[in-house]
Predict the structure.
Amino acid sequence: MPPAPNENLPVVVIGAGPVGLAAAAHLLERGLEPLVLEAGPGPAAAVASWGHVRLFSPWRYDVDAAARRLLARTGWTHPDPDALPTGADLVEKYLAPLSDVLGERVRYGTRVVAVARDGADRTRSRDREQRPYLVRHTTGTEVHEVRARAVIDASGTLGTPNPLGPSGLPAIGEERAAGHLAGALPDVLGADRERFSGRTTLVVGMGHSAANTLLSLVELRREEPATRIVWAIRGASPRRLYGGGADDELPARGLLGTRLRDAVEAGAVELLTEVAIERLEPAAPDAVRVLGTTADAALDLAVHTIVNATGFRPDLAMLREIRLDLDPVVEAPRRIAPLIDPNLHSCGTVPAHGEAELAHPDDGFYLVGMKSYGRAPTFLLATGYEQVRSVVAALAGDRAAADAVELNLPQTGVCSSDRSLAADADGVVPAGVPVDVDGGCCATPSGPQPVTIGARR
Ligand SMILES: Cc1cc2nc3c(=O)[nH]c(=O)nc-3n(C[C@H](O)[C@H](O)[C@H](O)COP(=O)(O)OP(=O)(O)OC[C@H]3O[C@@H](n4cnc5c(N)ncnc54)[C@H](O)[C@@H]3O)c2cc1C
């Protein structure tokens, strides 16, 4: 039987994060019907989970243009463009109101578990392009399916952290030790305080998340000196994260790196380099034994909690039946991979890119937002907003608008962790804190790289 026409079907957006909700706003503006399926209980569940963390990009780069236009009709006022929101601010002051405007077009507690071409598995080519997408999702224990004319997967990567093992596989015993893993961004000074106070924590990783968690633990240790902090990195030196110093190719990075280096030098943080975590074993009472190797010796450490800030990877299992064109290294759409490969870039010179770079062999299917960067940690919201503007223009048949991609970011100032550290409780950054601080937002395993955000194509 020939496939049914698709024009009256919605465009399914997976994930009601900042980029998914922006996609919905663009779809509405273009007269296309969005249906946003979100696994969490409310808008931007992933951002809400790191609500205590302050963004490094000020509000002016955090709000999508179509979303702003949609919200403007409700009397919504744009927060101070120069202030830095926390994740909680972003949800409360922007994404929750946006989700309210979208109303029943956003369904919560709805997890997408598979996407396919209706009636055609991955190998079947006949009539493939005419077939709608079939999106299978769960609500509680119930399984449902919805058909879609196109699918925009904006489901992020926060749900699939990289494992601790050195080969990209879980350390032996890692799944069983899951209760000791706190994720990359625990609220050390707030909701999760009890878990860390007066206890031993191993922080694994060398990116923005690890650095912020370490500094929070150092602050906790000042109040509760029995708190022990061990920091494990895979590399030989944390110099890239510290920044500055006469022998460093990078210019001074200021607050984040300096504070961290001071904490290590003062002995508040015990640094282990060239760490390979091979095995986790239960250790009494209430601890886990971490076994492997370090630069100097065997690793054998009993800790209460491990902060696994080892980066994230996309969940591709639910896309098994879709014909994707992914880069074999970073698992991003092949054409954007060279722009964001963490072996080559820090916060990367990321040219604007859109539908043409994000398309796959299965037309009408797109990875956008954080997930479109695969394993690369260099994603910025402003880039994602431009992605969805372009993708939606293409879906609406406006090829010229889809191809006219542009990123209006300054060369600097959207990617500075130091500014978020210096901000006051309202997110206002005192005068004099430099905007041109390099690479605070993301980790990279490679050597020092100059950082330029927003180069145009
Ligand atoms: C601590 C931190 C600070 C950051 N600071 C900045 C910053 O200052 N500036 C900047 O530009 N960027 C920043 N980023 C990077 C990036 O902008 C954010 O990660 C952003 O949240 C990505 O948006 P997203 O919509 O692509 O994905 P997410 O925000 O991760 O949203 C994905 C949504 O999809 C849902 N979901 C997941 N799986 C499914 C499924 N199977 N079915 C249905 N729903 C699903 C999730 O619950 C979630 O709500 C930061 C990231 C982190 C982690």
The CA atoms of residues 166 and 339 lie 25 Å apart. Residues 11-159+312-403 form a domain with the FAD/NAD(P)-binding domain fold (CATH 3.50.50.60). The chain has two domains: 11-159+312-403, 178-310.
